[in-house]
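Exercise: predict the fold of this chain.
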Amino acid sequence: MGQVSQDVYDTATGKYLLIPQGTRLLGAYTSDVAYGQSAVMIAWQRLIFPDGKALDISAMPGADNAGYSGFRDQVNNHYFRIFSSALLMSVVTAGISYSQDQDNSGNKDKSPNMNSQMSQALGQQFGQVITKMIEKNLNIAPTLEIRPGYRFNIIIIKDITFTKAYQSFDY
């Protein structure tokens, strides 16, 4: 949701008010964020005028103040979470490897007993489960945040024809 911050007048003469300040904008965005992405793409769908009238504007894209498509504000790449997960995975892997070495070190000349086999199987399964859980944290997409008050423009991709200047609905 956005809001028009200043009146918009016709381009031919500049004297007819077409979109008044305070008009709300409704848009849609995709929440599928890829690693390395830093902009949110928004397609603006509707204008809702202060008097309640609405106008469909058919998915016009938003642009930042420099004119680039999309909104760029704050990006959280979750580096702490990713690197702490990698560290935790290495600790779990080292622990499992150490436990396997401990079981095998005393039984070089003897055949494996039930206790050492159970311990080895439990360690492997436990390690696989923990590794899968931690790997999920390694595939975290960035979080893109556009804070309230972010200033933007709408790129007009088709003509919008107004039959007359804006007039508040007279009850």
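Check your answer against the key: Helices lie at 79-105, 114-138.
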